[in-house]
Amino acid sequence: MSEPTIICPNCKTEIKLTESLAAPLIESTRRDYEKRLAQKDTDIAKKEESLREREAAVSLATQAIDDQVAEKLLLERAKIVSEESKKAKLALQTDIDQKARELAELQDVLTQRDVKLAEAQKAQADLIRQKRELDDAKRELELTVEKRVQDGLSATREQAKKEAEEGLKLKVMEKEQTIASMQTQIEELKRRAEQGSQQLQGEVQELELEALLRGKFPRDTIEPVPKGEFGGDALQRVIGPLGQPCGTILWESKRTKNWSGGWLAKLRDDQRTAKADIAVIVTQTLPKGVESFDLIEGVWVTHSRSMLSVALALRHSLIEVASARQSLEGQQTKTEMVYQYLTGPRFRHRVEAIVEAFSSTKSKRS
User: Fold this and answer.
1) Is 259 left (phi over 0), alpha (psi -120 to 50) or beta?
2) pLDDT digits (tens, 9 = 90+) for 134-163
3) Which residues pair with 248 in a beta bridge?
4) What is the C-alpha to C-alpha distance for residues 192 and 264, in angstroms, rounded to an integer?
5) What is the pLDDT of residues 44-103, one digit of tens each?
6) Cβ neighbour number for residue 248 with a 10 Å cutoff
7) 237's torsion region: left (phi>0), alpha (psi -120 to 50) or beta?
8) What DSSP string describes 110-160?
9) What is the pLDDT of residues 2-43, one digit of tens each?
10) Which of 11, 70, 186, 303 has its CA 20 to 30 A from that of 23?
11) Going by C-beta distance under 8 Å and a sequence separation of 6 or more, which residues neighbour residue 105?
12) What DSSP letter does each residue of 306-360 carry, written as one string?
């Protein structure tokens, strides 16, 4: 194998590259490469340090972003809690205001009851006083006649007596008739006084019924039943959303310890006389088997605690029936169709569904 050669750059002479000549070159080249390698290691170390610094900066930035997001979440959660608290306070205040209005209405009813009681007591006292005055006047009249007869001369005694009797006879008859009339009134007053609180309670219950209906349905016309015309306590004339009359409900309030089946037939007769579409009895004592309300022999019977729910359902159904009456032409007489519906099972089930929905909503609000 031939030895390697190099060309002299100056004289262009080919020189054999012996070990003695190559050693310095190799050493110089080795040192140069080691120096370059050390420089590479330094550069790589600097790059690694820069990379670590950049990673630390990214970590700090990520942590700052996480902190900002957490802070925003806390602020939004506090805002939501504040808004919901305001809504709850507003709903509570609205409910309190409604209860206050209902309490004021009941207080007005009690005030009216006290006024009626005072008027009845005053009327009784006036009648007793008038009777006493009439008795005194009659006795005074009799004494006056007797005195005039006794004081007259004996010659004219009979004439004087006759004149006195004739002159006072008419007045005596008028007084006696007045006394008899007052006696009848006093007896009637005594009878009413014996009934006492029961009648007053009935009147108060009628007023409460009218007040509740007016408060719940201000658009409708609530009329007390005129005394002596027919039975029942109040007529509710239902007015639709467009101001159109939609039907009439006859209400009767009972406050007794026992239920009477005779009330049903009596109120049906009153319903026909009043030309009402629906008849309702509000009672503290329900028939056996009835928990809160039911349709019995064509008459709705409800406890006072369910009265407004039943009234709402009946009124809503009357408005619907009034709207549907136009489509009944040519099938049967309108009156017959409406009566069959109002006293049939479909109407009853509809009313029950409306009452249940209303009661459920009211329970959730409470």
Assistant:
1) beta
2) 677 667 655 654 565 455 445 545 654 565
3) 237
4) 26
5) 989 889 889 998 888 888 888 888 888 888 888 888 888 888 887 888 888 888 888 888
6) 20
7) beta
8) HHHHHHHHHHHHHHHHHHHHHHHHHHHHHHHHHHHHHHHHHHS-TTTHHHH
9) 667 777 778 888 777 676 666 777 788 888 888 888 898 898
10) 11
11) 211, 215
12) GHHHHHHHHHHHHHHHHHHGGGGTTTS-HHHHHHHHHTSHHHHHHHHHHHHHHHH
How far apart, in whole angstroms, are the C-alpha atoms of residue 224 and residue 219? Answer: 16
CB atoms within 10 A of CB 314: 24
**How far apart, in Å, are the Cα atoms of 296 and each of 216, 232, 267?**
25, 17, 12
* Rounded CA separation 317/323 (Å): 10
User: Which residue type occupies 169?
Assistant: K
Q: Which two tokens stand for residue 353?
A: 């569904």
pTM of the model: 0.45
- Side chain identity, residue 10: N
- As given in the structure block, the two tokens for residue 104 are 């004021």
Helices (H), the chain: 19-151, 157-195, 197-216, 262-274, 307-324, 334-342, 345-365
The dihedral built from the CA positions of residue 151, 156, 161 and 164, taken in this order, carries a sign that is negative
Sketch the domain layout of the chain as residue ranges: 101-197, 219-365
